[in-house]
Amino acid sequence: MTTAKTSLISFWQDDKMLSCKGWFISILAYWINLNLIAITLLSIGFFGGDVCSSKLDDKIVKVQAAAKISTEIITEDEKISWIDAKNTKYSKFKVTFLEDGILYAKGLVPVGNKSVRVNILEINTKINPNLDVEPKTASSSKLNSRVKIQNIASNSNTIAAVNGGYFKPQTGVPLGALVINNEVITGPIYNRASISINNDGTYSIGKSDIKFFLKNRKTVLKIDNINQPRILSTYSIIYTQRWGKTAPMPPKYGANALIKNGKITGIYNGTVQIPEGGYVLSAPIKVIQDIKNQRNLKLEVKYPKYFENSKHIISGGPFLIKDGEIYIDAKEEKLTAISGRNPRTLIGYTKDNELILATVDGRENRSVGMTLYESAKFMQKLGCINAINLDGGSSSVMYLKGQIANKPPIMGGIPLSGIVSINLNYPVITSAKDLSQM
User: Fold this and answer.
1) Are strands 310-315 and 193-198 parallel, antiparallel or unpaired?
2) What is the pLDDT of residue 433?
C-alpha cells in the first residue's frame, strides 16, 4: 500500500468525518490507487453538495500525508529496501527504527586499543517527508537561558535530538551563528563551521561568513554582530528582542541607540529596554552620531552563496569532513583546546542527503572519547561527505522519545542553550476551505 492510500484511509476513519460520499471516495481511491493530489481534488468535488452525516467543520483534522504534496509517492517496497540497507550498514550495532525515516543505532567502535560507545541517528526525509530538522533554543523570550535537553524537547513534537552549538556557560547565550526559520538569532564568531538545513530539504556546510549592514540610500554601516557578547569596544552590535528585555551596557566611549521604524528614537549611555518591533544599536558614539538623523534604516543580512537557500543554520566547529575529505581547521577556528579525546556530538550528511547525528561518550574507562581526527574518520566511515563538530564534553547528549540515549559525563546531561531536534509534523486542516486550498 502506498503512503497516499494509507493516509486517505486514516483520514476517513475519523467517525466525525464519515459520510456516504466519503466512504465511496475512500473505497474508490483504495482500489484504483489514486495519488494524494487526485484524491484531494475528488474529495473537494463531492463535498460541494450535501453529505449524509457530519459535515467538515472547524475541528482540527491531522491528515496523515506528506507535509509537502508531491507527485512522488514512497512505496512500502522502497521503505523496506531502505530498512534492509541500513540493517546491513549497521550490522554490528543494535538498530531501532524510531519512525519511518529515522534510524537509531548504538554500539562500540574501536579507537586504538580502546573502545568508544557511540549513538547514531540517520534521518531520511525522502522516506518520511513529515520529518523536520530544526534548532531550538532553551527559551523563546531570552537568550541567557539554559535548561536540560528533555525540557526543550518535551515542549514540542520532538522525537529525537542532540545538543546544539557552543554557548557561554555563565549565561547560555549561543556563541556562534544561529538562524531559525530565516531569523538571525545570533551572529557568527571566529567564522566557525556551520551546517544549514535548506528550504528544499537539502543540507549545506560552510564557514559562518554571514555579514550584516544597516543601510538606506545614503548610508551603509557595517554591523559587526547580532546578539553576541562584545569582544572589542570598537564593534557595532545590534541587540534584538531575542536577546531579552534590555540591551547590555554600551562600550567605553559608546552609547546605545534605540532604532524603530527605520530611525533612531533615543540615545542612552547605559542599559536600555529593547523596543518592541525594533532593536538597539550598541556602538562607539561617533558611529551613532553619524547616523542619528538618518531615516529608512534597514537591517540587511548577506549570506555566503552556500547558505543562500538556508532555513536554519547551526554553528559548531571545526570542520571534520569537507567535500568527502577529512579537513580539520581547529586552529583557524580557535578550537585547538578541544582536540584531545573527549565526548563529542557530530553532525553531517551523505551524498544521498541523509542527515547523520552522533554522540561519542568519553571520560571513562569503558569509553575514552575521540579526538577530532578520530571523529572525522568515524563520520567518514558512516558515509558523510560533509561533517562538523558540535559542542561536546559535558554538553554532549542524545534524546530519544523522552529518554537520554547516551551516557553523558554528568548524568542526564547539563543544562543547554539549545538543541538540534528531529520533529514529526503533520499538516493540519482546520476546515473544508483549508482542504480545498491544498
Assistant:
1) antiparallel
2) 53
